[in-house]
From TrEMBL:
<keyword id="KW-0812">Transmembrane</keyword>
<feature type="transmembrane region" description="Helical">
    <location>
        <begin position="38"/>
        <end position="61"/>
    </location>
</feature>
<feature type="transmembrane region" description="Helical">
    <location>
        <begin position="314"/>
        <end position="334"/>
    </location>
</feature>
<feature type="transmembrane region" description="Helical">
    <location>
        <begin position="105"/>
        <end position="126"/>
    </location>
</feature>
<keyword id="KW-0813">Transport</keyword>
<protein>
    <recommendedName>
        <fullName>Auxin efflux carrier family protein</fullName>
    </recommendedName>
</protein>
<dbReference type="GO" id="GO:0005789">
    <property type="term" value="C:endoplasmic reticulum membrane"/>
</dbReference>
<keyword id="KW-1133">Transmembrane helix</keyword>
<comment type="function">
    <text>Involved in cellular auxin homeostasis by regulating auxin metabolism. Regulates intracellular auxin accumulation at the endoplasmic reticulum and thus auxin availability for nuclear auxin signaling.</text>
</comment>
<keyword id="KW-0927">Auxin signaling pathway</keyword>
<feature type="transmembrane region" description="Helical">
    <location>
        <begin position="138"/>
        <end position="159"/>
    </location>
</feature>
<dbReference type="Pfam" id="PF03547">
    <property type="entry name" value="Mem_trans"/>
</dbReference>
<feature type="transmembrane region" description="Helical">
    <location>
        <begin position="73"/>
        <end position="93"/>
    </location>
</feature>
<feature type="transmembrane region" description="Helical">
    <location>
        <begin position="179"/>
        <end position="198"/>
    </location>
</feature>
<dbReference type="GO" id="GO:0080162">
    <property type="term" value="P:endoplasmic reticulum to cytosol auxin transport"/>
</dbReference>
<keyword id="KW-0472">Membrane</keyword>
<keyword id="KW-0256">Endoplasmic reticulum</keyword>
Length: 438
């Protein structure tokens, strides 16, 4: 008597045989459904970003003018000095402990790798496209620095809150996701205002030479004059350092300590220390101290903490960070709709670096880190590390370009196209990363 069930069949030899083709088909359907569920989970945060960004762009239109130039400045200052530090402080203080520091140490290393690898890819892009000198610093900045702030702050908790999220309990996942994103934002700010700031300043210093040699044609002088030291501090050979050193150094007997002091002073002069120690960075330091020092943590963190109202107030103000920051991003993208003289191949190259090559390399970096025990088994933490390679350029690049008057209009065009493409690429990469971690 022959018969069959869903996965087994009763063969002629009188034994039940496994129907392998049915099993394979069922597994394939299951995997397809799982991938589709993950795609929906990854799509929701990106749609939120897109809707809020589009709202910001609409509010910045001349006919509406609710987020004009002055309004963006005021709102950005509120985010920079109040909302963002409050968010970073409250999230890190609640979730960071001495035990968690054993794993979190790799995040600054991972972010640094994104900057270094992005810079190498940017150098290759510059050679291939023969990028003009005044845009080379912009290309390196856009390829190396990702938006490690507001995008992760939206994506991490939104992914956790989805019903089919692969990261476990939504409340715990959201808290840790916000902490990881906050730490990412603070570390990213330090790298942007040291590493990228120095590179873009070096390339901007080359621009006046071109303008001076063609002054009769352009009719303009150096627009980085305000960044140079005053002329009365310059010595006869054009260097201001000699006049500031002790007389024994200027006479040729420069000691080792003198050379060290001189090197530190030169390095400090090339970075924007005010932006390195931005409010978010200071808040991150305070958050680490509160979270890791047990007596302080007991006073401020917890339902029974006597001063818990301070942390609750900071968390309440921090909730305004994400919508305000994203609205400003959308408003700034309006400038990218205007025409610019940047080469299409340069824009396409930057888009390819940030949306194809860096995310692929990031998989190898994070997998290698896990293989060598540098990253724990927390899948959410690995997901954030992977996403750091797949983000569009940081909006701070536009501020630096505006500061040095190097490629301001071109930067707006690059940002516009990078964020348009990121709408699709972030969804696909997020889906693939979650599938990979499952």
């Amino acid at each position: 008597m022959e018969g069959e069930t869903l996965f087994f069949s009763y063969g002629r030899n009188g034994r039940w045989e496994l129907r392998e083709e049915i099993i394979l088909e069922a597994l394939q359907r299951s995997s397809e459904m799982g991938f589709l569920d993950l795609f929906v989970v990854a799509l929701m945060p990106v749609l939120k970003v897109l809707l809020i960004t589009g709202t910001g762009l609409f509010l910045a239109l001349d006919r509406v003018d609710l987020l004009g130039s002055n309004a963006r400045t005021f709102l950005n200052n509120l985010v920079f000095y109040v909302f963002s530090p409050s968010l970073v402080l409250s999230q890190l203080a609640e979730t960071i402990t001495l035990q968690s520091l054993g794993t979190l140490w790799f995040m600054p290393v991972n972010i640094l790798l994104t900057f270094i690898i992005g810079s190498i890819l940017a150098w290759i892009l510059i050679k291939i496209t023969r990028t003009p000198p005044h845009l080379q610093g912009l290309v390196i900045g856009c390829c190396s620095a990702g938006n490690l702030g507001n995008l992760l702050l939206i994506i991490a908790p939104a992914v956790c809150e989805e019903p089919n999220s692969p990261f476990g309990d939504s409340t715990v996942c959201s808290n840790y996701g916000m902490a990881y994103a906050s730490l990412s934002m603070a570390v990213g700010a330090i790298y942007i205002w040291t590493y990228v700031y120095i590179i873009m300043r070096i390339y901007s210093d080359k621009i006046p030479e071109v303008i001076v040699t063609n002054e009769s044609i352009t009719g303009s002088g150096s627009y980085t004059e305000a960044l140079l030291p005053p002329s009365d501090n310059l010595s006869s050979n054009g260097h201001s350092v000699q006049a500031e050193l002790p007389r024994t150094m200027s006479e040729g007997n420069v000691t080792f300590m003198g050379r060290t002091f001189l090197g530190v002073k030169k390095f400090a002069a090339k970075i924007n220390l005010k932006m390195v120690f931005a409010p978010s960075t200071i808040a991150a330091i305070c958050g680490f101290i509160i979270g890791t020092v047990s007596p302080i943590r007991k006073v401020l963190i917890g339902d029974n903490a006597p001063l818990r109202v301070i942390n609750s107030s900071a968390a309440l103000m921090g909730e305004a960070t994400i919508p305000c920051m994203t609205l400003v991003v959308g408003a700034n993208l309006l400038e990218g709709l205007k025409r610019s003289g940047i080469n299409v191949s340069v824009v396409a190259g930057i888009v390819a670096v940030r949306n194809i090559f860096l995310p692929l390399i990031g998989i190898g970096v994070v997998k290698a880190a896990k293989h060598f025990g540098m990253v724990g088994s927390d899948s959410l933490y690995q997901f954030i590390l992977l996403l750091q390679f797949a983000l569009p350029p940081a909006m701070s690049i536009g501020a630096i370009a505006q500061l040095f008057k190097a490629g301001e209009g071109e930067c707006s065009v690059v940002m516009l196209w990078c964020y348009v493409v990121a709408t699709f690429s972030l969804t696909l990469w997020s889906t693939f990363y979650m599938w990979l971690l499952e």
